[in-house]
Write a structure and sequence with these properties.
Number of helices of chain A: 2
Strand order of the largest sheet of chain B: 3-2-1-4-5
Structural class of chain B: alpha/beta
Radius of gyration of chain A: 16 Å
Number of strands of chain A: 8
Oligomer: heterodimer
CATH superfamily of the largest domain in chain A: F0F1 ATP synthase delta/epsilon subunit, N-terminal
Number of helices of chain B: 7
Distance between the termini of chain A: 34 Å
Order of helices and strands of chain A: EEEEEEEEHH
Order of helices and strands of chain B: HHEHEHEHEEHEH
Largest sheet of chain A: 8 strands, mixed
CATH architecture of chain B: 3-Layer(aba) Sandwich
Shape of chain A: elongated
Helix content of chain A: 25-40%
Largest sheet of chain B: 5 strands, mixed
Strand content of chain B: 5-15%
Radius of gyration of chain B: 28 Å
CATH topology of the largest domain in chain A: ATP Synthase, domain 1
Shape of chain B: elongated
Structural class of chain A: alpha+beta
Helix content of chain B: 55-70%
Strand content of chain A: over 45%
Largest interface: A-B, 26 and 31 residues
CATH class of chain B: Alpha Beta
Chain lengths: 132, 295
């Protein structure tokens, strides 16, 4: 059996994934990087985006917002601020949320609300891009 | 002597109290299970975070320009106590124990000539501390608008603490919360949150890198500066989750006691009720018999 990479994906609220995979592609702060088994120790800040987990020829994407990746000899650990498996995302619902959020920008009463709404739109757009 | 009707009413009222406490106990039991699961689910994140921090901090703590969150301000004049209690009562001595611990800490620290400031999380703690130490409370949070404790709840508190620290409002931050020992036992404890270095150095197993060095992207300092506020949030989140579990455990025990007491009271009242009824019947009988004899 070929070497496998031990991969843990945890968010503050739950452990989303733990197991052995072939290859993980992570959106690092300074560009995407792939992690294969026996990678050198490495740590990086993650920007908002989707990670791709490749295992036995199948690929699965998970959206993560902010976080941190650490590679040790034991494997890869991703500490995500927020994580959402794209398989749990409903495209129609997402489109709805996105248009709602865009309306919120115009409806915002204060700068704070507007900033919140803009951040939300940016986040939803990233999810949509990852999905598409 | 209480009439039969009064006794009957009293029994009925205790019975309905018993029903309520029984229901509350069952609700607490269900919530306890969920709270324990949540605390369990949050543990891997906290553990990994602590391990990463331990690695980074050992590399960074000697370096100049290391974040103050990590090594502290170098002074210890102003202490911030973050007192975490529940928002609701009726959970035995849970809130009182935490408040008592907080009072002890305040007394000790003020005895050492330090200035104490407080941030209260949870309504009950704020209420109980308000009277004696109201002037020390600089901020208070209520948890009732958060149905479940999530990262967002912890962030709300964490952001405030980080902001206060950046503003130079305090030197050392301590968390006063409840440690969940078991369902029937919760211990109040105080632990240091900032500077993070002291908290991290205790009992974290570091991954064995076999002599290899981490490569970091961007550099270690940037990572550490991003991670530290998150670390604070993570510690707060686990403390909050543990608190909820403790609250529910304590509530369950308290309500179990109340249910049992109500049961005992009902038994006692029933005996009194039966005796009174018997006495009344006997009196009536005696009256009838003596009336008949007189004829």
């Amino acid at each position: 059996m070929a070497d496998k990479l031990h991969f843990d994906l945890v968010s503050p609220e739950r452990r989303l994934f733990s197991g052995d995979v072939d290859h993980v592609v992570v959106p690092g702060e300074e560009g995407e990087f792939g992690v294969l088994p026996n990678h050198a120790p490495f740590m990086s800040v993650i920007r908002t985006g989707a990670i791709t987990v490749l295992n036995d020829g199948s690929a699965e994407k998970t959206f993560i917002q902010g976080g941190f990746a650490e590679v040790t000899p034991e494997g890869l650990t991703i500490l995500a601020e927020e994580a959402l498996p794209l398989s749990e995302v409903d495209a129609a619902q997402l489109a709805q949320d996105l248009s709602d959020a865009r309306e919120d920008i115009d409806l915002a009463n204060s700068d704070e609300e507007r900033e919140d709404a803009i951040a939300k739109v940016a986040k939803l757009e990233t999810i949509q891009a990852a999905l598409g | 002597m209480a009439s039969l009707k009064d006794l009957k009413n009293r029994i009925d009222s205790v019975k309905s109290t018993k029903k309520i406490t029984k229901a509350m106990q069952m609700v607490a039991a269900a919530k306890l299970r969920r709270a324990q699961e949540a605390a369990e689910a949050a543990r891997p994140y906290a553990e990994r975070m602590a391990a990463v921090m331990a690695n980074l901090s050992s590399a960074m703590s000697g370096a100049p320009g290391a974040s103050k969150l990590l090594i502290g301000t170098g002074e210890d004049n102003v202490r911030l106590l973050v007192v975490m209690t529940a928002d609701r009562g009726l959970c035995g001595g849970f809130n009182t124990n935490i408040v008592k611990k907080a009072r002890e800490r305040i007394a000790t620290l003020e005895g050492e000539g330090k200035t104490v400031k407080m941030v209260c999380v949870g309504k009950k703690g704020a209420e109980q501390l308000q009277r004696l130490y109201g002037h020390l409370i600089i901020d208070a949070f209520e948890l009732s608008d958060h149905k479940t404790i999530t990262g967002a709840t912890a962030q709300m508190v964490g952001d405030k603490i980080n902001a206060l620290f950046d503003a130079g409002e305090f030197d050392v931050c301590e968390l006063v919360s409840s440690e969940f020992v078991s369902v029937i036992s919760q211990k109040p404890r105080a632990k240091v949150l900032i500077p993070a270095k002291d908290a991290i150095d205790e009992g974290v197993d570091r991954p064995d890198l076999a002599g290899a060095l981490y490569e970091a992207e961007p550099d270690e300092e940037t990572i550490l500066n991003i991670l530290l506020p998150r670390y604070v949030n993570t510690v707060i989140l686990s403390a909050l989750l543990e608190n909820v579990a403790g609250e529910m455990g304590s509530k369950m025990a308290a309500m179990d006691n109340a249910t049992r007491n109500a049961g005992e009271l009902i038994d006692k009242l029933n005996i009194i009720y039966n005796r009174t009824r018997q006495a009344q019947i006997t009196t009536e009988l005696t009256e009838i018999i003596s009336g008949a004899e007189a004829l």
